[in-house]
Amino acid sequence: MATMSDASPAVARRSVVAPGPMALAILIALFLALFLVIPVGTVIYVAFTEKGSGAFTLVNFYDFARTDLFITSFWNSMYVATMTVVLASMFALPLAYLTTRFEFRGSGVVQMLGFIPLIMPPFAGAVAMQLIFGRNGTVNLLLDEWFGFKIPFMEGLNGVIFAQAVHYFPFILINLSAALRNIDRSMEEAAQNLGCQGFRLFRRIVFPLAMPGYVAGASLVFVKVFDDLATPLLLNVKDMLAPQAYLRITSIGLADPMGYVIAVVLIVVSVLAMGASAWVMKGRDYATVQRGGGGLAQRPLGRGQAVAAYAVVGLILFLVLAPHIGLFLLSIATVWSFSPLPDAFTFAHYERVFAESSVFIKNTLLYATLAGIIDVVFGVAIAYLVLRTRLPARHWLDWTASAALAIPGVVLGIGYLRTFFGVKMPDGTSLASFWIIIVLALAIRRLPYALRACYAALQQVSASLEEAAENLGANKQRTVRRIVLPLMMGGMLAGFVTSFATAAVELSATLMLVQSTSDAPLAYGLYVFMQSPAGRGAGAALGIIAVVLVAVCSLISNWIIERNQHLRNTRT
Amino acid sequence: MITRTITTFTLLALAGAFMPVQAQAPSGKVTVLTSFSKDVTDPFKKAFEAAHPGTTIEIQNRNTNAGVKLLEETRSANQVDIFWVSAPDAFEVLKDKKLLQVYKPKATGIPDKIGAYPINDPDGYYSGFAASGYGIMWNERYARANKLPDPKEWQDLAKAVYFDHVSIAAPSRSGTTHLTLETILQGEGWEKGWRTIKEWSGNLRNVTERSFGVPDAVNSGQVGYGIVIDFFAFSAQGAGFPVKFVYPSVTTIVPANVGVVTNPPNKAGAEAFVEFLLSPAGQEVLLDKTIRRLPVRPEIYAKAPADYPNPFKDPSLGGKVTFDSNVSSARTAVVDTLYDQLVTFQLDGLKSATKAIHAAEAALAKKDNPAGRKLVAEARDLVAKMPITAEQAASAEINAAFSGGKQKTARQAELEQQWASSAKAAYAEAEAKANEAAKLAR
User: Would an 8 Å CB–CB cutoff place A305 in contact with chain B?
Assistant: First the structure.
């Protein structure tokens, strides 16, 4: 049952459309329509209209295909997204494998540190990375002084790949680690009994069983990098698709359909990539029945192995945490200009921001928590509908929600203003100026993260466990509540933490929607600081506060859920 | 019961008695939409709130484009009192869309012109409160480490020594860079101006997407030289960064503006804010070391630190060019798109052509060769070649392609592809000619 057999027979048995899931599906469809499809539609329909007459046309797509710049940009984006997945896997695989598979002291710390790069405040991260790896950053200035050469870490497309891999590899790390922990230990033992060990064991048994987690993470990285505009722009790389769309929509091409045509292309490619990852997984069953074993057996490391393992982990952690080290140095620096380290240190920046940032902190926590909860609820619901029911068009829910990944934040922001500004609340103010709208925008933008995590988690739960529960007389709700949800807990937590942490530092949509400073989140405050020379240190200080805050909150939620799970395990 | 009635009555009477005064005195929340950083807005907020107790300034920070977009999208129920940014063109756009209302400040003692530029909008939709000029900023440590000379004029940046050391914000993204280009084009003429622009553009390290990206890169030493608006350099000096700044002789001093948004929720507050900015107390805030902008009141300069540029005293500042904003606004989109298609997105081609020309000239300087000289001159002409003339750039047909207007015209994407491919071919040809010239000199 738990091996890779053909398509799960359990799914095939549920052919009758139950009213409960149907109602749930309609509810989700309504939510997505109201807060994603309609607002975005009001903006990008321009892509399909003819200039002058406004009639429906596809000529704009013809222009897209004929413009060298766009075609180059398209292939550049493809190349960067693919290579980022490769490099990010090289960062994530050793960390995930070593910390889950071996008795590795400090694996909790490594897991946590490996997650931090995802919390990269806008602007601050790229500035700090330039200070460390840039042409005249710390590393290159030292290399030049000692050895007389420089390494172009941050130049051109390769610079984008490096920066993106550092930023997004936690998607793979988190999902893969969760998947590795979920593997039934007996699988591994069975293989060992049959004489399989070492790398072969990993290649033939462990990694294939963890495939849903890896694919979930890798597809997220691919799509996210394909659609990301901030990092290439901050590295001054413009011949990629997402930056082209952004540059056109926010400057000269405001009235020109090409920006929206690119947005449509981004959405289509993203959905295709998600579809491809589902197709790769299709026809295979990753569910395992037993969960009590608590994941892979952890083996002790030999002395030589331990030294090598710590060296690898140390090097990877240095690379991926360098932006945060740079940001921290910047936050306590007086002046840092063309030198390996700042001229002098000060705490003045922290004093400056502490006084005024409490409202930002409160808002950030509130918005990100609500967004994270909404995302997990919808993520679980969509994953359940897609994997456990045979509702017609259920995949559309998945695809629509995933398409949110490809919507540039500013398009979503403008769409929300257009759709909701005219809607008046009882007290006469506009719905668009109500802070809930910011939460919804954050939730929509981060829903794909939580969805992928929940999807992978549910894929690893065998349907036979639910059937067993139902055979014992439990009804559907009770089965979901007592069996499915607890077994998905790890994936749900991963989903919540990713949504929460990334929502806490999101800026592009927020910037359109923040109507007053008292409703503004941290990222907005940071943006305001980072626009002036004297504000650079203060902005960095705010960035560090954001990182620490989000990391601590993620840690606490992790701890609470693990403790609950532990209690439940010991009780039974 | 009786007391309460009396109290209410007295209050009403008092309110009636003070009504005219109350309508004048600003109170409550004044919402200011601005692109200025916290370092600029905080001192003004503090000073204004101190001068007008009972008021609070609510700052909404957006970049200029996003600010314009916000006012457009929310015009049905406007929540903003004041629009406060640098770029004069943004105010022109808002004025055309009827998103600003006329307010003629009562403040006196402000001259009509600064340099050759009128300080206030002649129709009274917006007022200048500070002046800024454009120039070159550089990092001293960077210049010393790379042994680079100090530049004085735009043309200096085209010299071979500065190759790969210069940065600029894309004019389509930065209102201030757009004005810099337009100043050069108006000061030197269309053909010659573009030649200058492309010659130093061949030395660019990168073209950034945010105005502040340039000073940020110069401050941290990632790039040596930046083409920026003056206060970016002055405020960086104020913050202690080792940077210097120079105004080239072809520069223009342009006012940064403030305007009252149509249907402001707090009209009295909005007007008080404009008056405060123009009052001596408000103007003095501009000298703050994190702001460092040029006041529009000549008497304030007496209180400025030594070396503070004074456009009212120094005739070389912005005297050479009479900036014509009508010429500028007639071709804004075309100039920006030309720069994007010929420079920003073709930077690699332009740079390798420029590098080849520099190499050929260095070779010819060692061993002269007339045929080689001729080839280099041809290569330079190829780089400088423009796909359209100044007349075409201002023509209705071409501009309509960028307006998304109602008529059927050429599509923006079509024109862009034409311009880009002609530039690409010209740069490749220029590189080939320069390489040939270098061979002849060997």
Answer: no
